[in-house]
Predict the structure.
Amino acid sequence: MSPESVMSLGRDAMEVTLMVAAPMLLVALAIGLVVSIFQAATQINEATLSFIPKLVGIFVSLLIAGPWMLSIMLDYMRQVFASIPNMVG
């Protein structure tokens, strides 16, 4: 295995990781921002107030983006398994 192929494999793994994690992270970020604006407007200083909306939002995002995320991961794993003979020999 050459250093270039190791770097390419690592870069592809990081890209897939970011693509799969992005929907959930963006939903959690948006919900956290909305809840923090609500807390600032109402002066409610409860740290656990954003937990349930974030949990529900991430669950909904998994239901919506789950098939896409699974197809991205499956395509990447097929590519990795198909490239194993080229890496060895």
In short: DSSP finds three helices and no strands in the chain. The mean pLDDT is 92. Helices lie at 3-42, 51-82, 84-88.
